Amino acid sequence: MILWLNYSHLIWQVLIFSFFIGQFDVPNGDNTSLLFYIIMNDKVIGSLEATKTMDGSQTIYKSLTSIKTKIIKDIEVDYEYNVIFEKSILKKANVDILINQKPHVKTRTGLKDKNYYVIKNGKPKTVLHQAIDYTTVLLFFQEPTGINECFSEQGGSLNAIVALGNHSYKKINTKKQENIYYYKNGSLEKADIDGGLIHLSIVARK
Question: How far apart are CA 50 and CA 63, in angstroms?
């Protein structure tokens, strides 16, 4: 039992090291780029750019969000998602969130021996034993028709997706926060985001 615990701990240490030194090299393949406004109280407070790059059997998704607003005091939030799929299966995901240019969240997910290991802020979080073929970043590119759950790259957990009809869907995270996504002709038009203390809307730029 002690040998197994030591072996398990060693695996986590190797994974933490490899996940954090791993780099995302975006190839020169076919690109799709989407732009969105971030709106709060009818005011544009930021922007979101999501890109999809195809290269052979790999699909690389990147999402950059920048928000500047005032909640009691000035606040700047930057999100960066880097996600790689291999033959339509999640291979690796990195999420970095900065608040006022200081690290707030750093989540790393990697596939090894058919298991997903999630490391959050430098500490082992969980292990998932199922193949993942739909994650949060795909909500920008692909209407979740027939999908009932997605993997949250930020939280490192599975979120429920509920079809509401008329091409709208509710995503529910482990904190019971609900985001609603609206699609037209398969493309994301708008999303209402429950951020806990604040509520935002993401609106596609025409």
Answer: 4
